[in-house]
Write a structure and sequence with these properties.
Helix content: 40-55%
Distance between the termini: 28 Å
Number of strands: 4
Shape: globular
Largest sheet: 2 strands, antiparallel
Structural class: mainly alpha
Low-confidence stretches: 1-33, 40-47, 354-366
Strand order of the largest sheet: 1-4
Length: 366
């Protein structure tokens, strides 16, 4: 089995100029800094309260008896199906936009937060479709109405289907309906490093996070923060390529999604920071860095993840992510030594020190 070096995918976030569809963003702040713990009284509430639906979905899959905790997402031939597949949505959009000029298409794509792309004979979907509130009575009025109907069908009236797994399908539908951007990950191919499509990879990462023994040492708020991060960590990743900017663009998109769900500002920032830094091991393990430079990088990363348990949560996420690249965790096994060395340094620099200069005396031991 060929393992692609982490270093081949190294990048610097600061040099990235990739565009990401975000739609309209609100600017008002939120008056509280903790997750709402109000329980839902019925599933019908999830149709109007996506925030509560998200937390209900996370609570359901976190239960020890939940099928999600033990389900084999690496099972040969496993696919997630949609009641209204992405391919059907693309075909409907193509039909709706038939005979529209390129200028009109460009205008509508910007307005609806997505676009159709061509790769040879295949048409793909880029971005996350969102309904438009524009009511301008122009020649595109009917087109807007039809696009809104298709997007509502894709985002609001869709469902996940896993053959023979009705309960698990219902649990996942709760999560995907709360953040319909997740529907665009279904069946999306990744680069050749990965054995799984993006949807399967994402669910494997979430499962790995929740099954990590260190997950149980977190408080309830941090658990929810990490679960949401796992769900959204690759939300903007482009299909079939090594998308070097996806950590940065994913952090921005996740913040927008969580703002729409009215999550507290602090929690949005925590999720965004965790996503932005979730590929830190590539930089830490770069062949261009010597031991001193790796230590300095760990030190700077610890500073960026200084709030609360972010460093510990990032480590849990990174391990979960690496385990979900190749079957049976082969990718993680290949880079296990580098991971544990990075983990040791990161945690060391994350701990409060009584003596400021003590951290400079820290040395990695084998």
């Amino acid at each position: 089995m060929k393992i692609y070096p982490i270093q081949e995918q190294q990048f610097k976030i600061s040099n990235s100029k990739t565009n990401v569809f975000l739609g309209n963003r609100k600017t008002r702040g939120l008056p509280f800094d903790s997750f709402s713990k109000k329980p839902l009284t019925s599933l019908s509430e999830t149709k109007t309260n996506k925030k509560e639906a998200l937390f209900l979905g996370l609570s359901e899959i976190e239960k020890n008896e939940s099928k999600f905790r033990t389900f084999d997402f690496e099972k040969e031939g496993l696919v997630l199906s949609l009641n209204y597949p992405k391919e059907a949505f693309i075909q409907d959009v193509e039909h709706i936009l038939n005979r529209k000029s390129e200028e009109e298409k460009k205008k509508l794509y910007l307005e609806f937060n997505f676009q159709l792309t061509k790769n040879g004979d295949k048409t793909g979907l880029e971005g996350h479709p969102r309904q438009s509130k524009t009511k301008t009575d122009d020649r595109l009025f009917n087109t807007r109405e039809k696009l809104n109907q298709a997007i509502q069908k894709f985002n609001e009236n869709n469902s996940i289907q896993i053959e023979g797994e009705e309960e698990l399908s219902s649990e996942l539908t709760l999560l995907f309906n709360a953040a319909p951007e997740l529907y665009t990950t279904v069946g999306k191919k990744q680069n050749k490093t990965h054995d799984f499509t993006l949807d399967i990879h994402t669910l494997c990462v979430l499962q790995n996070v929740m099954n990590d023994p260190d997950f149980e040492t977190l408080n309830e708020d941090d658990k929810k923060t990490l679960q949401i991060t796992a769900l959204l960590h690759d939300i903007t990743k482009k299909e079939g390529i090594n998308d070097e900017a996806h950590a940065e663009t994913g952090a921005i998109a996740a913040s927008s999604i969580l703002e729409r769900l009215n999550l507290p500002n602090k929690k949005r920032k925590d999720v965004s920071k965790l996503i932005e830094e979730h590929e830190w091991l590539k930089n830490y393990n770069s062949p261009n860095k010597n031991e001193f430079e790796r230590t300095e990088y760990a030190k700077s990363l610890a500073t960026r993840l200084k709030n609360g348990n972010l460093a510990k949560m990032e480590i849990i996420l990174t391990k979960a992510d690496m385990l979900a690249v190749k079957k049976e965790g082969a990718f993680f096994e290949h880079y296990k030594k580098a991971f544990y060395q990075g983990k040791k340094e990161l945690l060391a620099f994350s701990k409060p020190k009584n003596n400021f200069f003590h951290i400079f005396d820290y040395k990695i031991t084998s």
